[in-house]
Amino acid sequence: MSTVTQQATDARIAAIDLAAATRAEKDAALLLMADRLVERADDIVAANEVDVRNAREGGQSEAMIDRLTLTVERVGAMAAQLRDLAGLPDPVGDVVRGSTLANGLELRQVRVPFGVVGIIYEGRPNVTADAAGICLKSGNAALLRGSGSAFSSNAAIVSVLRKAVADAGLPADSLQLLDATTRDSVKELMRARGLVDVLIPRGGASLIKTVVEESTVPVIETGVGNCHVYVDEHADLEKALAVTVNSKTQRLSTCNTAESLLVHAAIADAFLPLVLPELINRGVTVHGDARVQEASAEVLPATDEDWGKEYLSADLAVAVVDSIDDALDHIRHYGTGHTEAIVSESLVATRRFAARVDAAAVMINASTRFTDGGEFGFGAEIGISTQKLHARGPMGLPELTSTKYIVTGNGHTR
């Protein structure tokens, strides 16, 4: 039996007890996990420094290093997420619908855990604590396969969390870290159908594509984010400037960061002289079409690749469009179904945009950066789903459950 198969088998056993755990038991474990993270923050940061040093020596970009880096403050934020989860309602056991049938049978559809959730993710060690917490709160055992670039960090975090889970009286094997030093663990996890109930990839386009195409375990596809901000002809320029700058620069390396800006031609002469210097002064490299290049000598020519790219860096593709429908066509061609924003004071325009754009989240006069489980009040999210089956958008606790029907009779026969 391979190591991954053994871990999945152990997780399946742990999931039986975890599914029956009370909210009080799970919340107590989450709070203890949070306390232990804070207590061991220095040790976790020291382990993370090894990963960061290796990443720098390996020539990783600053955006990727930012995603990888932990500080005492960031570990504290991870602990705060776990505490927030403890304060959220437990979805397990919720009655989705119920009725008494004509024959007297009582029918209830209730939320239940998936069982064993496998998560494959790239160099963001904060995902380790988020995934562990949201899986535990929703009653699922978690098999975590982070990237090799974050292995020291992830190992330190999981070691702390497993001990806390066990000390809280829940099965330690509810949370397990898979070996990230070999690709074999990914392949085995993707083939563990029957042991792993669902697989969630979190990372770049190539990772998600590989998992979706090669996994025999059911996959929830999470989001590559080529997010757009469309500034309509009826936009308030101050709002448009604030939304654009925040969407792009608040944090460069997240999937809900704007990667493209579309400006209506009727407002371009007024807006581009405002927004381009602001972006450029903040270190953003602008890749623009011919009309955008005319507005600033510092704009680079945009290629077709730029329009479809999730940069995850200080780059932004900017185009002038002649109508809202041209903007929608552009988004339809290049978008990834994650988050699309419109800035407009026109109710007609915002309604048209919201109805016709195909995305998990639509922002109206608000930054794309709000597409986030925490910002939506869900607590820590497991990812942002861009598919249309089961879950779409930020996946909180209810999205980590399935349902089953409980039918109660009194000797009924058919």
Task: Give a structural overview.
With 414 residues, the chain is α/β, with parallel strands linked by helices. It is built from 15 helices and 16 strands. The protein has helices spanning 3-19, 23-39, 41-57, 62-68, 72-86, 126-137, 151-167, 184-190, 205-214, 237-249, 265-281, 290-295, 304-307, 324-334, 347-356; strands at 95-100, 106-113, 116-121, 141-145, 175-177, 198-202, 227-231, 258-264, 285-288, 300-301, 315-321, 339-343, 361-364, 384-385, 393-394, 401-408. It has a seven-stranded parallel β-sheet with strand order 10-9-11-8-7-12-13, sandwiched between helices. Helix 12 links the parallel strand 9 and strand 10. The radius of gyration is 23 Å and the shape is globular. The mean pLDDT is 94.
